[in-house]
Amino acid sequence: MYNEKILELWKDPKNFGKLLNPTHKCSEINTICGDDMSIYLRVENNIIRDAKFFSTGCLICIVFASKLTEKIKGMKVKDIYNLKNKDLLKLLDVDVTPLKMQCACLSLNAVQNCLKKGKL
Ligand code: FES
To answer: What is the pTM for the complete model shown?
Structure first.
């Protein structure tokens, strides 16, 4: 069902874990399945300097969080707010069924909410 590249990313996701000394931290729950997504960010001068995530979510949730946390490093905070679900889906060549959309987008929602919540 998923290609080798996706399965490898799922087994060894980038930026999985907790960030030491984050400036921003928050958690989101996927209301469909109850799985969680915690996001840790270090923001300096309105630039995302580092990002990590921790989640109990499914393969789709994990692989998109991995790609998203890679993408946002070095981005301006204001540009993060402009990211849409469709931008996230373009990061990986994988079919996301309507049922799995909330899984795929959990990390983006968490990152945007984390920034809106403000510094710790
Ligand atoms: Fe829970 Fe995908 S089934 S995050």
So the answer is: 0.96
